[in-house]
Amino acid sequence: MRVGLLLCDHLREMLPSDVRSYDGLFYDLLAEQHGDLDMRVYDVEIGRLPADLDECDRFIVTGSRAGAYQSLPWLPRLEHWIRSAVAAGRPLVGVCFGHQIIAQALGGTVTQSANGWGVGVRTVPVFSRGLAARLGKPSLSLVYSHQDQIAALPPGATPLAGDEFCRYAAYKIGGRVLGFQGHPEFTHPVGRYLLRYAYPGLSPTQRAAAWNSLQHPTDNRSVARMMLEYGA
Protein backbone atom coordinates (compact mmCIF):
# COMPACT_ATOMS: atom_id res chain seq x y z
CA MET A 1 0.00 0.00 0.00
CA ARG A 2 1.35 3.42 -1.00
CA VAL A 3 0.71 6.00 1.72
CA GLY A 4 1.67 9.61 1.15
CA LEU A 5 2.67 11.35 4.40
CA LEU A 6 2.42 15.12 4.13
CA LEU A 7 4.95 16.03 6.81
CA CYS A 8 4.13 19.47 8.26
CA ASP A 9 6.80 19.59 10.98
CA HIS A 10 9.91 17.57 11.88
CA LEU A 11 9.59 18.07 15.66
CA ARG A 12 13.23 17.04 15.93
CA GLU A 13 14.07 18.93 19.12
CA MET A 14 10.66 17.97 20.58
CA LEU A 15 11.16 14.20 20.42
CA PRO A 16 13.21 11.80 22.58
CA SER A 17 16.65 10.92 21.21
CA ASP A 18 15.61 7.30 20.63
CA VAL A 19 12.86 8.39 18.20
CA ARG A 20 14.53 8.54 14.81
CA SER A 21 12.08 11.00 13.24
CA TYR A 22 8.51 12.28 13.37
CA ASP A 23 7.65 10.47 10.13
CA GLY A 24 9.19 7.36 11.69
CA LEU A 25 6.49 7.39 14.35
CA PHE A 26 3.84 7.25 11.62
CA TYR A 27 5.70 4.51 9.79
CA ASP A 28 5.97 2.35 12.90
CA LEU A 29 2.28 2.83 13.70
CA LEU A 30 1.06 2.01 10.19
CA ALA A 31 3.56 -0.75 9.34
CA GLU A 32 2.34 -2.68 12.38
CA GLN A 33 -1.09 -2.82 10.69
CA HIS A 34 0.05 -3.39 7.11
CA GLY A 35 3.07 -5.51 6.30
CA ASP A 36 3.46 -4.17 2.76
CA LEU A 37 3.58 -0.46 3.56
CA ASP A 38 5.26 1.90 1.10
CA MET A 39 5.26 5.28 2.86
CA ARG A 40 6.32 8.27 0.81
CA VAL A 41 7.18 11.43 2.75
CA TYR A 42 6.53 14.92 1.38
CA ASP A 43 8.17 17.79 3.29
CA VAL A 44 5.39 20.35 3.08
CA GLU A 45 7.28 23.15 4.88
CA ILE A 46 9.80 23.37 2.04
CA GLY A 47 7.13 23.18 -0.66
CA ARG A 48 7.14 19.48 -1.43
CA LEU A 49 3.65 18.19 -2.21
CA PRO A 50 2.51 15.22 -4.30
CA ALA A 51 2.66 16.39 -7.91
CA ASP A 52 0.28 13.64 -9.00
CA LEU A 53 -2.57 12.36 -6.87
CA ASP A 54 -1.97 8.88 -8.32
CA GLU A 55 1.44 8.71 -6.63
CA CYS A 56 -0.19 7.16 -3.54
CA ASP A 57 -3.29 5.19 -2.62
CA ARG A 58 -4.12 7.52 0.28
CA PHE A 59 -2.68 10.53 2.06
CA ILE A 60 -2.14 11.63 5.67
CA VAL A 61 -1.53 15.22 6.81
CA THR A 62 0.52 15.28 10.02
CA GLY A 63 0.63 17.44 13.10
CA SER A 64 2.65 20.64 13.32
CA ARG A 65 3.57 23.39 15.76
CA ALA A 66 2.22 25.85 13.18
CA GLY A 67 -1.27 27.25 13.49
CA ALA A 68 -3.59 26.70 10.54
CA TYR A 69 -4.58 30.38 10.73
CA GLN A 70 -1.01 31.73 10.62
CA SER A 71 0.46 33.63 7.67
CA LEU A 72 3.03 31.09 6.52
CA PRO A 73 3.98 30.73 2.85
CA TRP A 74 3.43 26.97 2.69
CA LEU A 75 -0.09 26.97 4.17
CA PRO A 76 -2.01 28.32 1.11
CA ARG A 77 -0.26 25.76 -1.11
CA LEU A 78 -1.20 22.97 1.28
CA GLU A 79 -4.82 24.14 1.43
CA HIS A 80 -5.01 24.26 -2.37
CA TRP A 81 -3.62 20.71 -2.55
CA ILE A 82 -6.14 19.51 0.05
CA ARG A 83 -9.05 20.92 -1.96
CA SER A 84 -7.71 19.22 -5.10
CA ALA A 85 -7.31 15.87 -3.32
CA VAL A 86 -10.82 16.02 -1.85
CA ALA A 87 -12.33 17.04 -5.19
CA ALA A 88 -10.61 14.05 -6.79
CA GLY A 89 -12.00 11.68 -4.14
CA ARG A 90 -8.64 10.62 -2.70
CA PRO A 91 -8.74 9.05 0.78
CA LEU A 92 -7.34 11.67 3.16
CA VAL A 93 -6.70 11.66 6.92
CA GLY A 94 -5.68 14.59 9.11
CA VAL A 95 -3.96 14.30 12.50
CA CYS A 96 -4.03 17.24 14.95
CA PHE A 97 -2.84 20.18 12.79
CA GLY A 98 -3.69 18.05 9.75
CA HIS A 99 -7.22 17.56 11.11
CA GLN A 100 -7.46 21.34 11.52
CA ILE A 101 -5.97 22.46 8.19
CA ILE A 102 -8.19 20.07 6.21
CA ALA A 103 -11.26 21.53 7.93
CA GLN A 104 -10.05 25.09 7.30
CA ALA A 105 -9.20 24.43 3.66
CA LEU A 106 -12.74 23.19 3.09
CA GLY A 107 -14.50 26.12 4.75
CA GLY A 108 -14.21 25.47 8.50
CA THR A 109 -12.69 27.68 11.19
CA VAL A 110 -9.65 27.03 13.39
CA THR A 111 -8.71 29.11 16.45
CA GLN A 112 -6.51 28.99 19.50
CA SER A 113 -8.83 27.56 22.12
CA ALA A 114 -9.78 29.43 25.27
CA ASN A 115 -9.68 26.02 26.97
CA GLY A 116 -5.88 25.99 26.81
CA TRP A 117 -3.65 22.99 26.27
CA GLY A 118 -5.07 19.53 25.67
CA VAL A 119 -2.31 17.09 26.68
CA GLY A 120 -1.87 13.53 27.84
CA VAL A 121 -4.31 10.70 27.17
CA ARG A 122 -7.82 12.06 26.73
CA THR A 123 -10.98 9.96 26.34
CA VAL A 124 -13.95 11.51 24.53
CA PRO A 125 -17.45 10.19 23.80
CA VAL A 126 -18.11 8.85 20.31
CA PHE A 127 -21.26 10.05 18.49
CA SER A 128 -20.98 7.74 15.48
CA ARG A 129 -22.21 4.14 15.64
CA GLY A 130 -19.77 3.25 12.88
CA LEU A 131 -16.78 4.61 14.79
CA ALA A 132 -17.98 3.01 18.03
CA ALA A 133 -18.22 -0.32 16.21
CA ARG A 134 -14.67 0.05 14.87
CA LEU A 135 -13.37 0.86 18.34
CA GLY A 136 -15.52 -1.74 20.10
CA LYS A 137 -16.67 0.88 22.61
CA PRO A 138 -18.47 4.26 22.73
CA SER A 139 -15.35 6.33 23.45
CA LEU A 140 -12.08 7.28 21.77
CA SER A 141 -8.76 7.51 23.65
CA LEU A 142 -5.59 9.00 22.17
CA VAL A 143 -2.56 10.99 23.26
CA TYR A 144 -3.32 14.70 22.78
CA SER A 145 -0.95 17.62 22.27
CA HIS A 146 -2.72 20.76 21.10
CA GLN A 147 -3.76 24.29 21.91
CA ASP A 148 -5.63 25.06 18.67
CA GLN A 149 -9.01 23.56 17.86
CA ILE A 150 -11.64 23.52 15.14
CA ALA A 151 -14.27 26.10 16.08
CA ALA A 152 -16.59 25.34 13.15
CA LEU A 153 -16.63 22.34 10.83
CA PRO A 154 -16.76 22.85 7.06
CA PRO A 155 -19.99 22.25 5.12
CA GLY A 156 -20.75 18.55 4.74
CA ALA A 157 -18.62 17.44 7.69
CA THR A 158 -20.03 15.12 10.35
CA PRO A 159 -18.66 15.16 13.92
CA LEU A 160 -17.72 11.69 15.15
CA ALA A 161 -16.44 12.32 18.68
CA GLY A 162 -15.88 15.15 21.13
CA ASP A 163 -16.66 16.71 24.49
CA GLU A 164 -16.95 20.11 26.17
CA PHE A 165 -13.17 20.63 26.08
CA CYS A 166 -12.72 19.60 22.43
CA ARG A 167 -16.00 19.71 20.56
CA TYR A 168 -14.66 18.21 17.33
CA ALA A 169 -12.21 15.52 18.39
CA ALA A 170 -12.95 13.53 15.22
CA TYR A 171 -14.96 14.13 12.05
CA LYS A 172 -15.57 12.75 8.61
CA ILE A 173 -16.44 14.32 5.28
CA GLY A 174 -18.29 12.00 2.95
CA GLY A 175 -16.70 8.58 2.73
CA ARG A 176 -13.12 9.64 2.02
CA VAL A 177 -11.95 12.20 4.60
CA LEU A 178 -11.22 11.64 8.31
CA GLY A 179 -9.82 13.96 10.95
CA PHE A 180 -8.53 13.21 14.46
CA GLN A 181 -7.47 15.88 16.95
CA GLY A 182 -5.50 13.30 18.94
CA HIS A 183 -2.16 11.78 17.92
CA PRO A 184 -2.38 8.04 17.18
CA GLU A 185 1.32 8.14 16.23
CA PHE A 186 2.40 9.37 19.69
CA THR A 187 3.43 6.62 22.07
CA HIS A 188 3.15 6.95 25.85
CA PRO A 189 6.93 7.59 26.18
CA VAL A 190 6.67 10.42 23.64
CA GLY A 191 3.78 11.88 25.63
CA ARG A 192 5.84 11.75 28.84
CA TYR A 193 8.84 13.36 27.15
CA LEU A 194 6.71 16.22 25.86
CA LEU A 195 5.29 16.79 29.33
CA ARG A 196 8.82 17.24 30.65
CA TYR A 197 9.97 19.75 28.06
CA ALA A 198 6.99 21.36 26.31
CA TYR A 199 3.71 23.21 26.96
CA PRO A 200 4.61 26.64 28.34
CA GLY A 201 1.99 27.96 30.71
CA LEU A 202 0.77 24.53 31.78
CA SER A 203 0.31 24.58 35.55
CA PRO A 204 1.97 21.95 37.78
CA THR A 205 -1.47 20.55 38.59
CA GLN A 206 -2.38 20.22 34.90
CA ARG A 207 1.00 18.69 34.12
CA ALA A 208 0.62 16.13 36.91
CA ALA A 209 -2.89 15.19 35.75
CA ALA A 210 -1.67 14.75 32.18
CA TRP A 211 1.27 12.65 33.41
CA ASN A 212 -1.07 10.37 35.37
CA SER A 213 -3.31 9.99 32.30
CA LEU A 214 -0.43 8.42 30.39
CA GLN A 215 -0.89 5.16 32.25
CA HIS A 216 -4.17 4.61 30.38
CA PRO A 217 -4.37 2.64 27.09
CA THR A 218 -5.15 4.33 23.79
CA ASP A 219 -6.96 3.36 20.60
CA ASN A 220 -3.98 4.09 18.38
CA ARG A 221 -4.04 0.68 16.65
CA SER A 222 -7.75 0.89 15.85
CA VAL A 223 -7.28 4.41 14.50
CA ALA A 224 -4.27 3.27 12.47
CA ARG A 225 -6.40 0.61 10.80
CA MET A 226 -9.00 3.24 9.96
CA MET A 227 -6.29 5.48 8.51
CA LEU A 228 -5.29 2.66 6.17
CA GLU A 229 -8.79 1.43 5.28
CA TYR A 230 -11.17 4.40 5.26
CA GLY A 231 -12.42 5.32 1.82
CA ALA A 232 -10.90 2.28 0.11
In short:
The protein is of the alpha/beta class and 232 residues long. Helix content is 30%, strand content 25%.
CATH homologous superfamily identity of the domain at 2-111 and 148-185 and 219-229: Class I glutamine amidotransferase (GATase) domain
Strands, total number: 11
CATH hierarchy, class of the domain at 2-111 and 148-185 and 219-229? Alpha Beta
Radius of gyration, taken over Cα atoms and rounded to an integer in Å:
16 Å
How much helicity do the residues have? Answer: 25-40%
Note the beta-strand portion: 25-35%
Low-pLDDT segments, ≥5 res = none
Overall description:
The structure is a single chain. By secondary structure, the protein is α/β, with parallel strands linked by helices. It has a domain at 2-111 and 148-185 and 219-229: 3-Layer(aba) Sandwich (Rossmann fold), CATH 3.40.50. The chain has 7 helices and 11 strands. The chain has a 7-stranded mixed beta sheet, with helices on both faces. Strand 3 (58-61), helix 2 and strand 4 (92-95) form a beta-alpha-beta unit. The longest helix is centred in the middle third of the chain and has 14 residues, at 74-87. The model has no long low-confidence stretch (mean pLDDT 96).
